User: Fold these one by one.
Assistant:
Number 1:
Amino acid sequence: MGERANRRRQEIKVLRVGLELGLTLIDTAEMYADGGAEELVGEAISGRREDVFVVSKVLPTNASRSGTVTACERSLKRLKTDHIDLYLLHWRGKVPLEQTVEAFEALVKAGKIRCWGVSNFDTSDMEELVALPSGGSVTTDQVLYNLTRRGIEYDLLPWCVDRKIPIMAYSPIEQGRVLKNRPLQAVAKRHEATAAQIALAWVLRQKNMIAIPQTSNADHVRENRGAVDLKLTTQDIEELDRAFPPPRGKRALEMI
């Protein structure tokens, strides 16, 4: 969102539709539309900031001790808020993790962010992170996860579950590419639901799992909301496992 001026009004409307439906977590980043997405979110949540859980991200090139603080202040200005609820390192770069963690902790102490986490971190990255001073304060890992991208189930997901660290799943319907799968459609028909709703419900079946589908279409937002109420059966899960087999070994972390 935020890349095309002629779509701004529609995109703000869509975000507000989501809020009205109770979808109150909004994920953005300084990278998206070069800050334009944060500006759009700031406008969309104006007047109802307390109803929204705002997530934003710092680029790894900005993630030094001072750079993280400066980047956060820029994001706060664009979002027109005095705090970000969850601030993430977008992916791992060359800046030592210790510097980024120190900056995150300083921002928490200053009240500019409520908590912090990471994105696109594999198991070894997470192990290195939690071994740092204050690294155990990490509150989430945002990663690619959907029916066709199940690699995290082998080690990263169990590792996070054991430590009660929630996973945020981005691209939970694989940008729509998964929706023509026949077994998925069969499960959807049984529930009188759409394939997208089943794909989202499959992600959300996990405890401590947050799905962040992206859409600029109000009807799709309503469709996404419907997935929250779906409960998949053992038969559903078994059929989807046959169609989308879980990993049998370690896979490199995938990113989009």
Number 2:
Amino acid sequence: MKIYTRTGDDGTTGLFGGRRVSKADARVEAYGSVDELNAALGVALASDQSSDLAWLRDLLLSIQRDLFVLGADLATPRGEESSYLPRIEDAHVQALERAIDSAEARLTPLRNFILPGGPAPAAQLHLARTICRRAERAGVHLSATQDVGPIPIRYLNRLADLLFVLARAAARAQGAPEVEWAPRKEQA
């Protein structure tokens, strides 16, 4: 099978079910943002191979698998479901909530805003969090005109929260301090 088909040369792409839409369509933006998020998690996985973060690698791989399901979910208009195509479910959201609770138990309570950064895995997770928030906004935008159901948006919202907590946990696991944000005082 060839990787190129030439069918998208006119600026369109196919959705599950066969319908063609513009590559600028809100649905394509939503699942494309999820794809970008998945790639960002791959970069986070590649950024550190230390044994300190083995627990994190397993979790991120699981999330990457979920993101393929979410991308397919967003690429499939409601009513065009297939028996072989899963949808993201509330159980996926609940798994994220359990992961947040588990990761937060390793951390001191947050008292101030922190600057995104730290060692490479933490910084990559902060970047993935911002991509996740963009994917969430794209999903909300799509849901304003098309039925996507409530769970994909809820999943992305919870995932962004988890990625923030994981970034903090990754920095802590590597002994890096968090840099708190403080507003600059005006010079006299």
